[in-house]
Fold this sequence. Notes:
Helix content: 25-40%
Strand order of the largest sheet: 4-3-5-6
Shape: globular
Order of helices and strands: EEHEHEHHEEH
Pfam families: GSHPx (PF00255)
Protein name: Glutathione peroxidase
GO biological process, one term: cellular response to oxidative stress
InterPro entries: Glutathione_peroxidase (IPR000889), Thioredoxin-like_sf (IPR036249)
Family: Belongs to the glutathione peroxidase family.
Amino acid sequence: MTLREIPVHTLSGEPTTLAELAGSGPLLVVNVASKCGLTPQYTGLVELQKQYGPRGFTVVGVPCNQFMGQEPGTAEEIAQFCATTYGVDFPLLAKVDVNGDDRDPLYRELVETPDAEGTAGDIQWNFEKFLIDRDDKITRFRPRTEPTDAAVVAAIEAAL
């Protein structure tokens, strides 16, 4: 099974896969939270979706409440917050665990990818980013790397 074929659920609970959400285009999978100091990164994620979406790129937000309870809301509350506060129009998946014994199968695969310094393993915090190119090659960006950082943008453009 490829990364894009791993079963996931939309925020509304519908079963899907990354392939169904994004086809074969590049995608940026990001664990998100509504009550985090990094939550304003939604603005950059929305910008990336607007700029590169027409070329086949998709941002996929994955709510997670494992970091100091910063995503406590229900699916409906998360959807409303994202839409009304940041104008999120990219897909959001169901809230999952990204670390620990109950780590979501998608994240079991993603955390094997090392970052720029060569470190793989657990998600450090909210807004860790994984760019998956058309060949399923993964590039990992840590939480404090802004979505519109030059390195992220260059990687997206190379993946397109």
